[in-house]
Every structure is written in structure tokens, then in C-alpha cells.
Amino acid sequence: MTMKEEHIPEITESKLYDDVCAIIEDTRYRVAVYVNSEACRMNWHVGMRIKEDVLHNARAEYGKQVVKHLSERLVKRYGSGWGFKKLQHCLRAAYTFSEAEIDYAVRRQLSWTHLRSLMFVVDELARKFYMEMRVEDQTGSMSSISDASSSSVLPSILKFSTRSIGLSNTSFRSVKWLSEMIPSPTLRR
């Protein structure tokens, strides 16, 4: 054995494989987190842009027609994922969450699926509670939100609604045409 061979650390094939897999998995995770964050922000910004444009002419039928026509054009260009329902969800996100709340949610690694579920929680205090509960849960599952909402414990935890503690109740229901475009505001799975 030469002196040169003695100084070379011995790396086993198994260790090399494990290290390369760890690098790949770590990078894939970081890419997924980044893509999710940007998708959530994009969807919220799409909703805000529609909200700004359609609010200038608040007639229900006009707003519905604008969104339907936009969805038809987007589907032709980007595929079926940009249909009317998707735009409804984007619009609901714009009415439900502030930009700061969206930024907070993506920093806490909530997905668009999580945000969509949270959009159907009408009570602002309950929505914030569910958001924190999901962050603490860290399972990636929305079951904790659905389970808590159907349990008898949640009403006692959230005894004080946004009205009773003096939070402003700025709701998407204040715009007449929007209530016709977006499904009813109940918690859905």
C-alpha cells in the first residue's frame, strides 16, 4: 500500500448512495415548498386581479360573465386546471385572506389545498385557529380541521366570535354578485 492510498478516506458504496439520496430528497423538498408557496401566491393574486376588475362593475350577471369568459380563455391556453371553479377559489381567497395572511400561510408551509379548506370557514377567529392547529399538527392532513369543526369541543374553544371581540366582519357576502358565483361558505372536505 502506498502512502497516497492511506490518506484517501474509504467511502463505501452504500454510504455514497445514502448521501446522494439525501441530497436529492432535500432538494426535491425545497423545490416543492417553493413551488407551493408561489402557487398559493399566484392564485391569490389572480383572485385579487379579478376582484379589482369586476368590482368596478358590481352587477352580479356582469361579474359572472367576466369570470366565465376569462376561464374559457385560460383553459384554452393553460388547460382544464384554470376552469371556472378554479377562478372561483382564487376569487374566494382574495376575499378571505389578506396578502399578509397568504404570506404567513406559505411561510408556515400550508398548501393551496389547506387554504381552500380554510376559505370555507366563515368565522375569522375559527379560521385562524384552524391555521395554527394545522401548523402544530404538521401531518399534512386536513383531517384535523374537519375533525375539530365537527367536534363539540370547538364551539367552546371559540366561544367568542369575531363579532363578540370586536373584530371587523369584512365578508365576501357584502358583494352581491359574489355570493352567486361562489359556493356557500360552509366547511367542506
Give the tags.
189 residues; mainly alpha; 10 helices; elongated; disordered C terminus
If you had to describe this structure to a student in words, what would you say it looks like?
This protein has 189 residues and is mostly helical. It has ten helices and no strands. The radius of gyration is 23 Å and the shape is elongated.
Give the secondary structure arrangement, pairings included.
Layout: H1 3-6, H2 13-55, H3 60-78, H4 84-96, H5 99-107, H6 112-119, H7 124-137, H8 143-150, H9 153-157, H10 176-181
Helix pairs in contact: 2-4, 2-5, 3-4
Tell me the β content. Answer: under 5%
Largest sheet: none
Number of helices: 10
Average pLDDT taken over every residue: 74
In summary, what is this structure?
The chain is built from 10 helices and no strands. It is mainly α and 189 residues long.
